[in-house]
Amino acid sequence: MEPSNKIHTAQFLQHHLQEVIMLLEKQQLEKSLVQRGPINNHELVETVLCKQQQTRIQEKFAGLRPADTAYILESLPLDQRKTAWNAIKTDQDGQVLLEVSDAVRQTLISGMEAEELVTVASSLDTDEIADLAADLPKRAMLKILRSLNSKERSHLNAILSYQENQVGSRMDFGMITIRDDLNLKAVAAYIRKLGKLPGHTDKLFVVDQNNIVKGILPLQRLLTHSPSRSVADVMVTDFVRFQIDQDIAEASRAFERYDLISAPVIDSNGELQGRLCVDSILDFIRDKTDEDLLIQAGVTEEEDLFSSVWKSAKNRWGWLLINIGTAFASTRIIDVFEDIILQLVALASLMPIIAAMGGNTGNQTSMLIIRSLALGQITSSNIRRLIKKELTLAVLNGTFIGCIIGLLSMLLYRDIALSAVMATAMFINLLVAVLVGLGIPLLRHKFGKDPAVGTSVILTAVTDSMGFFIFLGLAKLFLIDR
Fold it and tell me: 182-241, pLDDT tens digit by residue?
């Protein structure tokens, strides 16, 4: 068996997953044979088999980290996932619940009793319980609150009082605070007395008698300076701190920019409220990335890979229905120019090129804008220069791509007028695509909406429709009745 402290490779996890699936299938087969066999005492035999099966599954999961267990559970169909989860449940299951996706977590929690969830919560910190709170049944959450002491309950309520996009919702309370009138020898003795450091502790927070943060003492300074020196002499007063109601996206950019591991979280008075750690930031970035990918694909919320067909269908219908509407709009434009297409069949084969190039160009622009908005790089002072730069680039690309498309059309159809129309239509549609790629995310951001939502669908609809209209319109003006 692999040691528990080993970071398992993707190949190992795939192998382990296949072994778990084979074991679950074998167990299901054994159960079916017992139920159909001539044995009189089916219940006793099934109970014995169930115990054996649980032992086998537990052995398969032994030595895996919670994240590895979560990966395997996410990859199992619902019935097999339930069987595996029931077999491996322990008082450490909270870490597994934290690692699985939101959708899978809901399926696991739905099969657990309130008492089980209270037991799971007993092994978690208050910030970790807060991460699970949205998926916990009301009855279980009340029982968990009653099981906490007053300090833990206060911490949990503090985290839950903030919106999920605020720093306060992601902070924890595992910080060590010290006073600046201590010497480093006393601080080191205090840490030794604690016995262990909270995870991600790279610095101590220096506070006054009112819990106002005055500075930080990096552990590196604690170890490299003379023990006789005071905290006030060696602490850092120019440090990164976050307001408790600050946007978590801003905090994530600061963590990246300054290579932070942890940072103090303060209120408007400068009083220490908690700390923000790199693991919470990584979780936020992962969640945001997954969410953006799903949104761009037209899936409105995280979907369990093995959720019911009906649930998955409802989850995807919204944007599919919008796509139907935009597709029909494009066909109506083609219908308007039906006579022109019949007179010059070459137009039918060239139309998709105009639309496709417009869609690709618009997506390039919109993705750049969405990313820049997410990183906070677009401001009121530079937005005009950005728009000017993108439009200039559109003119350059439109001219270059238009000339290439016109030349290829000339080689295929030996028609100068058709090639000129093709090049012109390509140029205009690329300009339109860039305008739309700029406009949609910027307008959504201006009105407080997620710039990624719907941008791809709307962009494709506009560039397709405008590409057909521009190309066929120019063809009507310059190619028909020449």
Answer: 999 999 999 999 988 999 999 999 999 999 999 999 999 999 999 999 999 999 999 999
* Domain range summary for the chain, segments of one domain joined by +: 10-166, 177-296, 309-478
| 10-166, CATH topology level | MgtE N-terminal fold (1.25.60)
Residues 6+ apart with CB under 8 A from 363: 437, 456, 459
Can you tell me the distance from the alpha carbon of 17 to that of 81, in angstroms, rounded to the nearest whole number? 11
For residue 370, report the phi and psi dihedrals to the nearest 5 degrees.
Answer: -60, -45
Spell out the residues 6+ positions from residue 303 whose beta carbon is closer than 8 angstroms to its own. Answer: 103, 294, 311, 312, 315
Structure token digits, residue 182: 């201590």
Residues 6+ apart with CB under 8 A from 247: 165, 166, 167
Q: What are phi and psi of 267, to 5 degrees?
A: -95, -170
Q: How many CB atoms lie within 10 A of CB 442?
A: 18
Residue 213 phi, psi dihedral angles, 5° rounding? -75, 120
Q: What is the pLDDT of residues 314-352, one digit of tens each?
A: 666 666 677 777 777 777 787 888 878 877 878 888 888
Residues with Cβ within 8 Å of 314's Cβ and at least 6 positions away in sequence, in order, are: none
Please count the other Cβ atoms lying within 10 Å of the Cβ belonging to residue 96. 26
CATH code of 309-478, in short, is: 1.10.357.20
Phi, psi angles (nearest 5°) of residue 411: -65, -35
Q: Tell me which residue of 98, 131, 102, 64 sits closest to 307, measured CA to CA.
A: 102
Amino acid identity, residue 336?
V
Residue 95, Cβ density class (10 Å: 0-12 exposed, 13-18 middle, ≥19 buried): middle
Domain 177-296 sits in CATH at 3.10.580.10
Contact between 230 and 181 under an 8 Å Cβ cutoff? The reply is: yes
